[in-house]
Write a structure and sequence with these properties.
- The longest helix is centred in the N-terminal third of the chain and has 14 residues, at about 10-20.
- This protein is mainly beta and about 725 residues long.
Length: about 725
């Protein structure tokens, strides 16, 4: 064979394209094929063109780059090798070799790699089987950038993968590895590429001394940004399999938007008993099962620009559900304060808020049968007129009223109440002293009371005289900060006569029903204000003392001193890293400290460890040591004294390890038996930074008053946001 001439790409631009476009194998209406490179060779008898060095081939929406390429003009078949990049509609695939049929727009790539945000994917072989559909064989995927981590911290392997760029991908026979250690297997793994929480998530796995081994998992489902949710499947060795679902939804726009959350959970719970002889929890051989479940609904609907409706419903199988499944419910996102509420009701409120007034319709319904007596409101309507000036008279007035229909569940007693309140005030100054006298009246009507009396009218008046002022010290300098001490004494006198109706005679304990008031309310506030070199002001310290001085004979008749409890409140923030809060309640009548609490917080230096750029944005760059110490003391009359100490600390012990510690110790005792304390709760969590993952070992122990203490061990892996670094996939 005679060697064919070699043309430079400049010569090719002049005569080469003319040959391609005039070839009889190409229909005139078809789009041209652009083929270029540093060196090109055309085999005229075989209608084949060969390119070497920076070869580019473009046809319709496909663009390929490679070190070397061979193109069959008759068959429209392209073969490329060496640092191959296939670009179709913005989707890039990198590989060693490529065979591509331009007629069918299908092809095969060896050693393929691609980036499906946030996943870096590679496989032994990738096939394009349809438009926007690819099949990857023996694939792996991770969020660790191979340009930085040739050996990723973690990875998933799959026997095959289906990839729909920009939409989703499926992986089959998936094994999850941390380094080279396999930790989990999934037959199918599905992930969305639309930046939505799609797919199976395995939360904590571990062991609990009472419940046994457990694994908490859920599957994220997604319809659109307005409707998404989870399907829960929990395995708890000694209790059973828990199943549940939730839905977060949002609809509407502008002034009529609505959003809400619905959650349901069910478990056919096995009987669990404490074996005193073996010292552990066990299921008896003939263990029975009971249905335990929970339903939760909350919805917020904006009816107009100034009107909002809120509904909340909680329905439980029994009163102890939240307590028994506290850990599991916290993993699902419920806050501790909510879980401690064991007697929730169903409520609905519609509130209209305007600058001058607030109007509300409120309904409260007893939902759970195990809850005790509840005064249902079916409904309550209130109207509050905000304080405003009465013409140009310097007098101010405010008015509120309400109507409520009470139903005392479950007995069935009913009563209707109407109340209204009007207050008139006139703020003024007397030199350096600010005064605010006020006179008000309150009226009630009850259709029925507990004694059977009907159409009961009551009226009462209230008076108030408030006085306050602020005393300023001269500005003084302390180091580099200017400071000023403020003293703010306040004195308010309240008076109202005894109500004509006993509160206990009513079906509902109405907070609006006036009690006899005849006392002085005293408060002394000390504030220390600092101003730094930058001109920013902040409060360095606040110390408040308050008490009440009673004048009514009923209070004195119980043998008490006229003074109420002395309350002290101290807050210190000497630096941005240190804070202290303390509060105490002292009974001056008995000379006994009723309760106090303290809290000390310290935050260590920021950026103690200098991270490489790959840790930017992953949550650990600005971590520091944080420490808090607290106490809680309470001495109820006739009951054991409660005194708790709380210690909490968290921070980095190395660039890759974080430690979190929490302990609450309960000192239970009384004045005769002395102290009998125990650890009420402690937790230790050790977290390892796995780049885009956090791996955590979590151990906790909780004291149970009516059973043995519970010890739980959790193993958790959390996927963090993907690295914000530019995407770089090595092709050499």
């Amino acid at each position: 064979m005679v060697d064919k001439p070699v043309f430079s790409w400049k010569v090719f631009l002049f005569i080469g394209l003319s040959l391609f476009l005039s070839s009889t194998s190409m229909a005139e209406e078809e789009l041209p094929i652009d083929f270029s490179g540093d060196y090109l060779e055309y085999l005229a008898g075989e209608e084949i063109i060969i390119g070497r060095g920076n070869v580019e081939v473009q046809y319709k929406g496909m663009k390929t780059r490679a070190d070397w390429a061979r193109f069959d003009l008759a068959k429209k078949l392209l073969f490329a090798k060496g640092n191959v990049i296939l670009n179709e509609g913005g989707d890039k695939f990198y590989g060693e070799t490529l065979v591509y049929d331009l007629n069918a727009q299908k092809g095969t790539m060896d050693k393929a790699r691609t980036f499906l945000e946030p996943w870096f994917v590679r496989g032994d072989k990738m096939k394009k089987v349809a438009k926007n559909e690819y099949l990857m064989e023996k694939g792996t995927f991770t969020t660790d950038n191979p340009a930085e981590f040739p050996k990723p911290h973690y990875r998933f392997t799959a026997s095959r993968m289906k990839i729909f760029p920009g939409q989703r991908f499926w992986a089959y026979n998936v094994i999850f590895y941390v380094r080279n250690v396999p930790l989990a297997y999934l037959p199918v793994f599905k992930r969305s590429l639309k930046k939505v929480p799609y797919g199976l998530v395995l939360w904590p796995m571990g062991h609990d001394s009472k419940k046994g081994w457990f694994a908490i998992s859920h599957y994220n489902w997604y319809i659109n940004p307005q409707v998404r949710g989870r399907i829960y499947l929990d395995y708890i060795e000694r209790l059973g399999v828990g199943k549940g679902f939730d839905t977060s939804y949002r609809f509407g726009s502008g002034e009529r938007t609505g959003k809400g959350y619905f959650y349901g959970y069910f478990i056919d719970e096995k009987e669990l008993l404490w074996n005193e002889q073996k010292g552990k929890w066990q299921n008896p051989p003939d263990a029975e099962t009971i249905d335990r479940w929970k339903l939760h609904l909350r919805h917020r609907q904006k009816l107009s620009e100034d009107t909002i409706a809120i509904i909340r419903v909680d329905k439980f199988s029994d009163a102890d559900f939240n307590t028994d499944y506290e850990d599991e419910e916290q993993w699902k996102g419920f806050l501790r304060d909510y879980l401690e509420d064991q007697s929730p009701e169903g409520t609905l409120s519609i509130t209209k808020s305007r600058p001058d007034y607030t109007a509300q319709l409120y309904i409260k319904k007893r939902i759970n049968d195990f809850v005790g007596v509840i005064p249902e409101k079916l409904p309550e309507v209130t109207f509050d007129l905000n304080r405003q000036e009465l013409g140009d008279s310097s007098f101010y007035w405010n008015f509120d009223s309400g109507l409520v229909y009470f139903h005392e569940a479950p007995q069935g007693d009913v009563s209707t109440q109407v109340d209204s309140h009007l207050e008139l005030s006139r703020p003024s100054r007397l030199g350096w002293l600010r005064l605010e006298p006020a006179l008000g009246g309150r009226g009630f009507w009850y259709s029925k009371d507990r004694l059977g009396d009907r159409n009961r009218w009551m009226g009462n008046y209230e008076t108030r005289l408030g006085m306050n002022t602020t005393l300023y010290s001269p500005v003084f300098q302390f180091r580099k900060m200017q400071m000023r001490h403020l003293i703010q004494p306040r004195l308010t006198y309240y008076y109202s006569p005894e109500s004509t109706k006993n509160r206990n005679d009513l079906f509902s304990f109405n907070d609006k029903l006036s009690l006899k008031q005849d006392y002085f309310d005293l408060e002394l506030v000390n504030r220390l204000i600092g101003k730094g070199a930058g001109g920013n002001k902040r409060e360095l310290a606040t110390f408040t003392l308050s008490s009440k001085f009673y004048r009514n004979s009923e209070f004195l008749g119980r043998g008490h001193h006229a003074w109420g409890d002395l309350i002290a409140d101290l807050k210190l923030i000497p630096t941005e890293k240190i804070s202290f809060e303390g509060e105490a309640n002292y009974d001056v009548n008995t000379g006994w400290l009723n309760e106090f609490s303290t809290g000390f917080g310290w935050r260590g230096e920021q950026n103690k460890y200098k991270y490489r750029d790959r840790f930017e944005g992953l949550g650990w760059t600005n971590e520091s040591w944080n420490l808090s110490l607290g106490t809680e003391y309470y001495d109820p009359e006739g009951s054991p004294t409660n005194f708790d100490t709380i210690v909490s600390a968290s921070g980095l012990i190395s660039p890759k390890w974080k430690l979190q510690v929490y302990q609450r110790y309960d000192w239970i005792g009384d004045k005769t038996l002395g102290i009998n304390g125990h650890n009420e709760e402690w937790r230790i969590a050790l977290t390892r930074n796995l780049h885009h993952w956090d791996g955590q070992i979590f151990v906790q122990k909780k004291w149970r008053q009516d059973s043995k203490d519970e010890v739980g061990i959790f193993i958790v892996f959390r996927l963090k946001p993907a690295s914000p670094l530019p995407v770089s996939i090595p092709i050499k």
